[in-house]
Amino acid sequence: MADKRKLPPWAYVRKLIKPRFEAAGIHVCELKNEKYTDSQGNLICQGSGFPTFAHSMKMKYRKYPFEMEEVIRACQPCHQVIEGMGYERMLAVVRNTINRRRVPVDAIFKRTS
User: Fold this and answer.
1) Residue 39, CB-side half-sphere exposure with 13 Å CA sphere
2) Which residue, 73, 71, 69, 83, is CA-closest to 8?
3) pTM for the full predicted model
4) Phi, psi (5° rounding) for residue 35?
5) Residue 85 DSSP class
6) How far is it, in rounded angstroms, from Cα 100 to Cα 4?
7) Distance (Å, whole) CA 27 – CA 43
8) Are the beta carbons of 55 and 35 closer than 8 angstroms?
9) pLDDT in tens, 56-96
10) In 1-113, where do the E strands start and end?
11) Which residues pair with 73 in a beta bridge?
12) Cα 108 to Cα 47: distance, rounded to the nearest angstrom
């Protein structure tokens, strides 16, 4: 388990990374091309419908500050889909999405591992 006292609060990190996403031109759901569907087979992505930050892993697995900024923009329905995927798949989806970006988002923390 991560020592939560060593990690910055999410509100602080969000305040720092939000302008970096804006500068990179990331304003919509980054999962829109994944074609996630509901139980009836309907596409669920809302595209630009109030995208939130979706983390690569749940808080209980984070150990380093850089993991706090390992996020993508996702609409609420897509965010819910990846939240239910389990640790390894959720991590892979977020990291693959980050790696496919045309414009990188500047990091605020350095990798320590």
Assistant:
1) 0
2) 69
3) 0.84
4) 60, 45
5) S
6) 30
7) 20
8) no
9) 998 888 888 888 899 999 999 999 999 999 999 999 999 99
10) 52-55, 71-74
11) 53
12) 26
